[in-house]
């Protein structure tokens, strides 16, 4: 509360007059010596134009959901006519241009406010400067499109980026215990008794050059040759997967249903009946066509319910 008051450039006395709350009470609120009632929380939140949860310190979202949504929608509308976006980005943006757009953007904004860098940057929190959000939201929509929409190109892209990069392989043997020590006056004071006279000039030159000492451990048992060989294999895999983009363009979207029964017969052998779309792939179980159709219909209804439930959860 004190930070918000300072941002607003008002004193406790001025706040007291406006809100008709004693200055001493406001002071106790600021210092955590007293807890406002719900109605008072709401009055204070309205005064500072922030959500109650932010004022209470239980949320990092400095503006309310509706205002955040409106800002996100304005950015989204600009995306629709932005010629700088490549075809892949445009496809992702157009995909969400439907009745579910608000829920998609609300979900995105909740993720945005949870980003550590946003928590530490006041401008990014209040969206006065939404340059970072403008870039981030485009990436969010593209990543969500890649996960949600099953296409040849998305499968290729997701597979390509799931391959570990070279740095991950190269640093596998590193132990995460790195220490960074600036070569500054404090460091020189700490080691002054250990510096031979002939090294003094060199050490002071390093200090002048704003040098940092980095130290850590690594596991020497991991073979560098193995790391190189794995990287060569992964580079080759990336190259081959990239070529598939030309070979397998996207087909028209067509969601089909898979229905299957698996029985464990008395002999201990598993038997399967399965139908993929209209094609019967396995027919080892002796059941009638009407029973098959019944299971297909039941499955269709269950999937419809589950898909709707999934959409609600994603909100």
UniProtKB/TrEMBL annotation:
Assigned keywords, A-Z: DNA-binding
Top-rank taxon: Bacteria
Pfam families per record: HTH_3
Keyword NADP recorded: no
Protein name in UniProt: DNA-binding helix-turn-helix protein
Keyword DNA-binding: yes
All residue ranges annotated as the HTH cro/C1-type domain in the record: 1-55
Record InterPro entries: Cro/C1-type_HTH, Lambda_DNA-bd_dom_sf
PANTHER family for the chain: HTH-TYPE TRANSCRIPTIONAL REGULATOR XRE (PTHR46558:SF11), TRACRIPTIONAL REGULATORY PROTEIN-RELATED-RELATED (PTHR46558)
Cross-referenced SMART domains: HTH_XRE
UniProt GO molecular function: DNA binding
């Amino acid at each position: 509360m004190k930070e918000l008051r300072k941002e607003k450039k008002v004193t406790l006395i001025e706040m007291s007059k406006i809100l008709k709350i004693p200055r001493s009470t406001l002071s106790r609120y600021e210092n955590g010596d007293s807890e406002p009632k719900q109605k008072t929380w709401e009055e204070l939140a309205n005064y500072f134009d922030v959500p109650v949860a932010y004022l209470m310190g239980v949320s990092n979202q400095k503006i309310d959901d509706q205002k955040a949504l409106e800002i996100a929608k304005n950015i989204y509308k600009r995306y629709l006519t932005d010629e700088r976006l490549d075809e892949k980005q445009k496809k992702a943006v157009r995909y969400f241009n439907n009745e579910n757009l608000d829920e998609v953007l609300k979900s995105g904004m909740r993720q945005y406010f949870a980003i550590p860098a946003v928590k530490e940057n006041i401008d990014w929190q209040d969206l006065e400067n939404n340059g970072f959000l403008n870039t981030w939201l485009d990436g969010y929509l593209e990543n969500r499109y890649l996960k949600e929409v099953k296409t040849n190109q998305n499968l290729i892209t997701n597979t390509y980026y799931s391959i570990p990069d070279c740095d991950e392989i190269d640093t596998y043997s590193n132990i995460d215990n790195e220490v960074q020590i600036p070569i500054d006056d404090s460091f020189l004071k700490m080691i002054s008794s250990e510096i031979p006279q002939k090294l003094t000039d060199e050490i002071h030159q390093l200090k002048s050059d704003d040098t940092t000492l980095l130290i850590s451990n690594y596991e020497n048992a991991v073979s560098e040759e193995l790391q190189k060989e794995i990287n060569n294999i992964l580079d080759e895999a990336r190259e081959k997967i990239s070529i598939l983009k030309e070979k397998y363009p996207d087909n028209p979207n067509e969601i089909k249903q898979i229905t299957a029964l698996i029985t464990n017969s008395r002999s201990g052998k598993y038997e399967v009946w399965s139908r993929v779309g209209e094609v019967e792939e396995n027919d080892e179980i002796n059941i009638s066509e009407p029973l098959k159709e019944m299971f297909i219909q039941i499955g269709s209804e269950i999937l419809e319910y589950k898909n709707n439930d999934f959409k609600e959860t994603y909100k």
